[in-house]
User: Which sequence fits this backbone?
C-alpha cells in the first residue's frame, strides 16, 4: 500500500465511524505487525481529545503512537533512546500545530471552556462532518506520518 492509499484508508476508517486516533493508527497497523483489531483497541481511548475530554487531538495522539512504534525506546535505562523518541514527537507535534493551528481538540473544534465533558459520542451525520474538522485532522496526521517515514528512509 502506498502513502496516498494509507492516507485514504485513515480517512475512510474515520468515515466508517472509528474515532480519529483509531483511524490513524489502524491505517498503519500492518507496518508494525498489529492486526486491525489490536490497532483499534490500543488507540480507542484517545479519540475526542483523549476519552472525549477535548485535550490533545486524538489524530495527533495516533500520530504519536506511531512514533513510539517506530522510534520508542525499549530499555528502561535508554535515556538517549527516550530523548530521540521525544524529539520525534515534538517535531511531529510542531508540524501538526503548524498545519492545523492547534494541538488541543477543543481549540481545533472551537469549543468554549464552559461546555461540559460528556462521554457519549455524537452521531455521525452530514451535519457532524460539516461542523467538525476531524476528517482533515485524520488526513493531516496520516500525511505527516507518511512524510516523516519518507524523510527517515531518505536520511537513513
Assistant:
Amino acid at each position: 500500500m502506498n502513502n496516498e492509499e494509507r492516507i485514504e484508508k485513515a480517512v475512510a476508517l474515520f468515515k466508517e465511524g472509528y474515532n480519529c486516533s483509531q483511524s490513524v493508527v489502524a491505517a498503519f497497523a500492518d507496518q508494525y505487525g498489529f492486526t486491525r483489531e489490536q490497532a483499534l483497541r490500543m488507540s480507542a481511548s484517545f479519540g475526542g481529545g483523549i476519552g472525549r475530554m477535548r485535550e490533545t487531538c486524538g489524530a495527533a495522539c495516533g500520530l504519536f503512537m506511531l512514533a513510539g512504534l517506530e522510534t520508542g525506546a525499549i530499555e528502561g535505562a535508554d535515556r538517549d533512546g527516550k530523548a530521540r523518541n521525544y524529539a520525534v514527537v515534538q517535531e511531529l507535534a510542531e508540524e501538526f500545530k503548524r498545519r492545523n493551528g492547534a494541538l488541543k481538540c477543543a481549540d481545533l473544534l472551537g469549543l468554549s471552556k464552559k461546555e461540559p465533558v460528556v462521554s457519549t459520542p455524537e452521531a455521525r451525520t452530514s451535519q457532524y462532518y460539516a461542523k467538525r474538522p476531524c476528517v482533515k485532522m485524520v488526513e493531516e496526521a496520516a500525511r505527516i506520518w507518511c512524510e516523516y517515514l519518507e524523510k527517515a528512509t531518505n536520511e537513513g
